[in-house]
Amino acid sequence: SIYIASDGVPHTWADLCQTWQTKYGVVPPAKAKPSKRVSKQIDSTKTFRELDIKLKYPDVHVGVAEIEAE
Question: Residues 8-34: pLDDT tens digits?
Answer without folding.
Answer: 888 877 788 888 889 888 887 777 676
